[in-house]
Structure formats: C-alpha cells, structure tokens
Amino acid sequence: MSRQLRKPVLAVIWPFRRWLAAIVAAHSALGLLCGSFMYLVALSGSVALFSDEIRWWEQPFFPVMTSLKSGSIDVAVADLSHQYPNLSHKLVLIHLPTSREPYTTIAVGEHNADGSKGWYISADGRLVAPVKHEFSEFIVALHTSLIMEHGAGRMLVGIIGIAFLSLIMSGILAQTQIFKNAFTLRVGGNIQLQAIDFHNRIGTWGAPFFLLMALTGSILGLFFVLLSAPATTAYRGNIMQAFTELAGPTSGHGLHTSPEPLSMLLHRIIIDEPESELKSAAITNFGTITELIRITGVSKNDGITPMQIVFDGRGRKLFDSRINNGGASQRFLWFLQPIHYGSYGGLIIKTVYSLFGWGLCFMTSSGMRIWFARRSNRGVAVPKLERLWDSILWGQAFSLCMVAIVALFPDIKITSGMTWLITSIGLGALSIMMRNRERLMTFLMFMGSCALFSTVIIHAIKIYRYSSIVCDIEIMDVILLLIALIMGAYAFIRCFSPLLANKTLTCPPKM
C-alpha cells in the first residue's frame, strides 16, 4: 500500500521532479557565482589597498609638493574656468597635497572632456598634465561596486559583505573545539584533511580581522539602505535630510556676488586647525547662488580622526563634522572608511591589511575546494563548474595584467572594465573546452606569469625612456617581476613533477 501511495504523494509534494537535475545544477551555479563574487571582492580589496602606490606606478611624472603657494588654488580654478566656459552648476573636485599623497589635482566631476580624471597642478597653480589612472581606478571600482552601476554595485558588495559575515560566524560556531585545535595542522596526510585544517586555522586566527572587514564593508555598501530606516521614522522618509545631519548640506543658500576665494578658506582652516591635515575640497554648483564648498581633512596625530567643514559661497560655515562636535553614531560612521580601507597608517598598515586580505582570498578558494571535494565524494561532482572556478581563481592574474597593459596605452579606445570582462569570459570559455583540470590550472598559471612579466617589461620601456631611474618605481617593478617568476616556477614544477614521479605528464597543451 505504501508503495502505491509513494508515487502520487511525491507528485503532490514535488510536481517538478523532471526538472530536479536542472534545479540542482542551477543551485550549484549560483553557489559558484556567490563564491566568485566573494573572491573578487577579497582579491581586489587586497590590491586596492595600494591604490596610491599604483597611481604613482602608472603615472610617476607629476609635480611633487607638500604644500601650495598662496593663491595657487584660485589660479587653478580660474584656469579651469577658461577651459570650461560652461563650468557653472558643475562639481569641481580638488585633491590637496598631503604627506602621503604629495600632489595636487583638479577635475570637473568624475571625468573631463578628454576622458581623464583631471589635471595635475604645479606649485604656482598651472594645469600641467592630465591625470590618467585607469588601472588603479578600475581596481577600486571592482572592489567597491564590481564595476557595476554605482548604486546597485555598492549594494551588491554590501550584500556580499553580509554573506561573508554569516559564513565567518557560522564557521566559528561549527568548530566545537576551536581553541583545542587552534595549533593543530595535519600536514603530509590526506590532502582534503590538510586543506580543511589550513582553512580552519587561517579562519580562526584571522577571524577578528575578517569580521571587522565584513562588518564595515557591508555597512559601507548598504549605507543608504540602512539610512532609510531612521529616515523613515525621524525624518518622515527624507533620506537626504538624514544624510545632511551626518555629512552636511548638499547645496548652499542665499545670494552672493563676490564669493570668497578658496585659498582664503583653506588658509583660515589651517590657522584655526593646525593639528588637521587638509585632503580635498569639493565645490558643488560652481558659480551659482547655491554654491557649496566642502573641505575634508584628517588629524595629523592619529591619521584617522576625520574632519569635514562645509561653507557656502560667501565663506559662511554651514557644517562642521569634527568628532568633538558629533554624537556616537556620527563618530562611528566617520571612522568606518579609514578602518575598512586602512588609510590611517602608512605602508606597514597597508601591508598587514593586504596579508589578511590574501588570507581571506585563501579562505574563499579553499572553502570552494572543500565544497567541490565533498560533492565529488557524494557522487555528484560538477567538473565543469570546478574548471570554471579554476579560471576565476588562477585567471585573474592574467585578466588584471591585461587591464594594466591596456591602461598603459591611453590611445586604445577600450575601457578597463570591458578588457577585464572579455579576458575573464574568454578564460571561462577555455576552462569549459579543456577537460583536463590539471592542464588547465598549469596553463592558467603560465598565462598569468607571462602576462605579469610582460606588464613589467612594457611599463619599464614606456616609463624609463622618458625619465631617469625612479627608485620606488623600480622596487615595485622588481616585486612584480619576482611574483611573475614565482608563478612561472610553480607552474613549471606542476608541469614536470608528474614526469619525475613516472606519472602522466600534465604540461599545458599547445593552444
């Protein structure tokens, strides 16, 4: 009787049994997609920490300064007005020289007419050279928005941060003997057990940092979504009014016929706040009655305490965000960015952050490996998805190097995002066609090594023929060259070690 009832009962509970295989495949593909997003966010974040150094590597020839001459900013703004007759109502962004970023730039909005990010300014205020930092801007965009439309991309990255947070917390809770096994590492035995031990140990010791990055990243990505809740109750759904309370007004008020020069405002802040280092100035609605000047800075003592002062066009102070004038919630929000991006310290802090970031990359990749291995042990292996994951894991070195090479040639009319998408999709298609996973991994390592080596050579030829040897740029190229050699050596060992062990050769095929 039970056998007779089993079929109709199952049919009632699950009427789409014939689609079960497709649904399971879609579920696996979705898991791969989520893992890929997590890996890309962790990888790009580890590289984006050095965005300032990458900008210098891309364009090392700029006027170096730690301070500006009196009135030079006004000269630059006037020069910009001559180049842009319709500058009225536009957003003018000015980067001020600091001890860590000793240069000054000015730009109209996000892009200028020639596609550059602005101009470098000399010490006397002249516009001397266009700013073109395509690769560093791409890396930052990949981390903050996965090169998607800004609002949707940041929201997606925020959701990924929540997923990271959930995985880290569940991973910690799943280890019933977390303290007892904190120093346990089974090396040389079963490969799967060894991978699990490495995954658990790195996750245990890096958990405080991973939790901090996941929490701050998710809040930054979902900031406006989180802001909508208090805005609904306290400001009757007016998100901009809630934002104004935190970051100041977005437009000025009142008539003014003779706006106060920007250099005078900067000089006033320097006199009033000698312990603060100014970083940027933004002029909203330039040249109109609603003109607004937003000046940001940071404390010289700790490099993390932020400062933001907003003036109207007449030089009247409208907002001051300094910590001693704000509440706990405002203080927390202003500390989020420097804590997440490691911008409060020098190269040592960035290096520590980057090492933890690479640990998070390893956590993501080893977690995916464990997931694939367990599926294989249950007899439900997904070899195509495994090879696709390999193309993402090992192919990003090649894809990012291609973006860097294209960025070194500004005349090439292809965006960094399109270059990355084309190379990533191409490697994904290659992974589906190559059925031998070991050969695929070795081939991708060779490709990444060759691409990184080519990037260093092209950069050296392009940069050093215009200038004498620059010590710091040389060091960066040497580091990249060493990474390329290590990748190539590892691929070479993977290729020929099976031959030494009298096993099948796993050299990459001739493509």
Task: Present the secondary structure layout.
Elements: H1 2-13, H2 20-48, H3 51-58, H4 72-83, E1 92-95, E2 105-108, E3 119-121, E4 127-130, H5 134-145, H6 150-174, H7 191-205, H8 207-221, H9 223-234, H10 239-247, H11 262-272, E5 276-284, E6 292-299, E7 306-312, E8 317-320, H12 328-341, H13 347-377, H14 383-407, H15 416-433, H16 437-464, H17 471-500
Antiparallel strand pairs: 1-2, 1-5, 2-3, 3-4, 5-6, 6-7, 7-8
Helix pairs in contact: 2-5, 2-6, 2-13, 2-14, 3-5, 6-8, 7-13, 8-12, 9-10, 14-15, 14-16, 16-17
What does this structure look like?
By secondary structure, this protein is an alpha+beta fold. Among the domains are: 60-132 and 249-320, no CATH class; 382-511, no CATH class. The protein has helices at 2-13, 20-48, 51-58, 72-83, 134-145, 150-174, 191-205, 207-221, 223-234, 239-247, 262-272, 328-341, 347-377, 383-407, 416-433, 437-464, 471-500, and strands at residues 92-95, 105-108, 119-121, 127-130, 276-284, 292-299, 306-312, 317-320. The chain has an 8-stranded antiparallel beta sheet with strand order 4-3-2-1-5-6-7-8, covered by helices on one side. The chain is globular, with a radius of gyration of 27 Å. 30% of the residues are buried.
Weakly predicted, low-confidence segments = 1-14, 499-511
The whole-number mean of residue pLDDT values reads: 80
Order of helices and strands: HHHHEEEEHHHHHHHEEEEHHHHHH
Structural class: alpha+beta
Proportion of residues in extended strands: 5-15%
Concise synopsis of the structure shown:
The chain has 511 residues and is an alpha+beta fold. Helix content is 60%, strand content 8%.
